[in-house]
Design a protein that fits this description.
Structural class: alpha/beta
Number of helices: 16
Function: Catalyzes amidations at positions B, D, E, and G on adenosylcobyrinic A,C-diamide. NH(2) groups are provided by glutamine, and one molecule of ATP is hydrogenolyzed for each amidation.
Domain CobB/CobQ-like glutamine amidotransferase: 252-448
Largest sheet: 6 strands, parallel
Pfam family, one: GATase_3
Protein name: Cobyric acid synthase
GO molecular function, one term: catalytic activity
Shape: globular
Strand content: 25-35%
Strand order of the largest sheet: 2-9-1-10-11-12
Radius of gyration: 23 Å
């Protein structure tokens, strides 16, 4: 028997579709259903590697966690990872199809409908409910032709739609009414409920507007969801994390906000630790005097390195490194810290650029992408982070470059690809003094790693590190999904939503 289906669409990007999808997944799971998320096409730089070594969007991983199931590329058959302002790497069923300009992809995307429907069909056979998430807005009239992610997907899946508007940014009534008005009649008839999201204040003041909205749209409002402070993985650069802490804490960690920053979820564990500030910085002035600087992953290492150089951030980071501060690079950030970056095949920008020269490492970009789940431990390392020596870690690799260590370089970790059953270990990363780099995303996820880093930074400052605590990050995320579900249960008309789900679309 095929699954029941419901779809969440939004009036704009960041209206709250991903969180509402995750919350409904959690609620349906709590109510005893087998539920899975689905997003036919996702554009994001935050991605994840499954146990099968396949790549998918991070938002669907977060939603799968909320649903209590293992992430699968079936939940996100198409992933677009922007490489520049007008093009993306196109990933289909977890594997790289190639790079396309926006125009090329727009003309090509209808060819991907069979893969989308095959993935959706498999989920539909396995689960009781599939919660589909749209992308951006269904009312982008210049992009509606051959749509595969909003109303086009709703038609293919015969999914009733809940349309979400963001009241926090203002104009929510115009958002919702304007979106409905720009849809064709058949599409309008598929919208079965409206949701006002991110509301703060007295709902009774909103009620007259809700009545007028329902009257003009002819569609019921099925909930006014509150603005909730939650710590869950973000999808892309619209995250509010970048506008978070500005003041330095007792232990201050600064992440350089590269133009094409990716997988910044690597650093979320530090946000749960008391006394620790995790700041995303774009200018030398914002950098200030942190205890550790992190260079994160990026979708275009060479171009972001040039930005680092032109913006003055490279000079600021080099100055901190020479003062003995901890500099830690992950994936693309690790590559930047090396001596040279070469791209003979034009995988990124082509040509060759000089690295920051903090690690004796040379990187060559290759045509094949490394995609593996890994586990292992830190090697015997020295410097401020020496107490991480021997500490276990796990995560995943996802990169196009191959880095070679020069003689004086020492590796940071020893890892193996456990998902494929490999027993042979390999050395990863490099360090010199207080500069460290690794290819492993999620390297800080384990409690003992995040705690070890902060404890080492505190010790270096002469602070008592005995009281520093970290949380079990997985358990913490579970508590956040429960908090999300509880908030939605209180403010959504779930009885009506279940009726919408049961009725479906003929």
């Amino acid at each position: 028997m095929a699954a029941k289906v419901i779809m969440i669409q939004g009036t704009m990007s960041n209206a709250g579709k991903s969180l509402l999808t995750a919350g409904l997944c959690r609620i349906f799971k709590q109510d005893g259903y087998r539920v899975a998320p689905f997003k036919s096409q996702n554009m994001a730089l935050n991605s994840f590697i499954t146990e099968e070594g396949l790549e998918m969007g991070r938002a669907q991983v977060m939603q799968a966690e909320a649903a209590g199931i293992r992430p699968s590329v079936l939940m996100n058959p198409i992933l677009l990872k922007p490489t520049n302002d007008t093009g993306s790497q196109v990933i289909v069923n977890g594997e790289v199809l190639g790079n396309m300009s926006a125009r090329e992809y727009f003309a090509y995307k209808k060819n991907l409908i069979p893969q989308i429907m095959e993935a959706f069909g498999k989920l539909s056979e396995e689960y009781d409910i599939v919660v589909i998430e749209g992308a951006g807005s269904p009312a982008e009239i210049n992009l509606k032709e051959d749509d595969i992610v909003n109303m086009g997907m709703a038609k293919l899946a015969k999914a009733p739609v809940l349309l979400v508007g963001d009241i926090d940014r203002g104009g929510v009534f115009a958002q919702l009414i304007g979106t409905v008005m720009l849809l064709e009649e058949e599409e309008r008839n598929m919208i079965k409920g409206l949701v006002i999201n991110k509301f703060r204040g007295d709902k009774s003041i909103l009620d007259p507007g809700i009545r007028m909205l329902e009257e003009k749209a002819g569609i019921p409002v099925v909930g006014v969801a509150p603005y909730m402070q939650l710590e869950v993985d973000d999808e892309d650069s619209l995250t509010e994390r970048f506008e978070g802490k500005r003041e330095a804490g007792l232990i201050d960690i600064a992440v350089v906000r590269l133009p094409r920053i990716s997988n910044f979820t690597d650093f979320n564990p530090f946000e749960t630790m008391e006394g620790v500030s995790l700041r995303y910085v774009k200018t030398p002035g914002e950098l200030k005097d942190p205890d550790m600087v992190i260079l994160p992953g990026t979708k275009n290492t060479m171009e972001d390195l040039l930005w680092l150089r032109q913006s003055g951030m490279e000079a600021a980071v080099l100055k901190l490194a020479h003062r003995g501060k901890v500099i830690f690079g992950v994936c693309g950030g690790y590559q930047m810290l090396g001596e040279t970056l070469k791209d003979p095949m034009g995988v990124e920008a082509g040509g060759e650029v000089k690295g920051m020269g903090l690690l004796p490492v040379d990187t060559v970009f290759a045509g094949d992408k490394t995609r593996t789940r890994v586990e292992g431990s830190f090697e015997g390392i020295s410097g401020i982070l020496e107490e991480l020596s021997g500490v276990p870690l796990e995560g995943y690799e996802i990169h196009m470059g191959v880095s070679t260590l020069r003689e004086e370089a020492k590796p940071v970790t020893r890892i193996r690809n456990y998902a494929c059953g490999e027993q042979e270990q390999k050395l990863d990363g490099a360090y010199v003094g207080n500069v460290y780099g690794t290819y492993v995303h999620g390297v800080f996820d384990r409690e003992e790693v995040a705690k070890g880093v902060v404890r080492a930074l505190a010790k270096e400052k002469g602070l008592d590190a005995s009281g520093i605590t970290a949380v079990d990050f997985q358990a913490f995320k579970e508590s956040q999904y429960d908090k999300l579900a509880a908030g939605l249960r209180e403010h959504l008309d779930l009885e009506r939503i279940y009726r919408i789900l049961d009725a479906g679309i003929e």
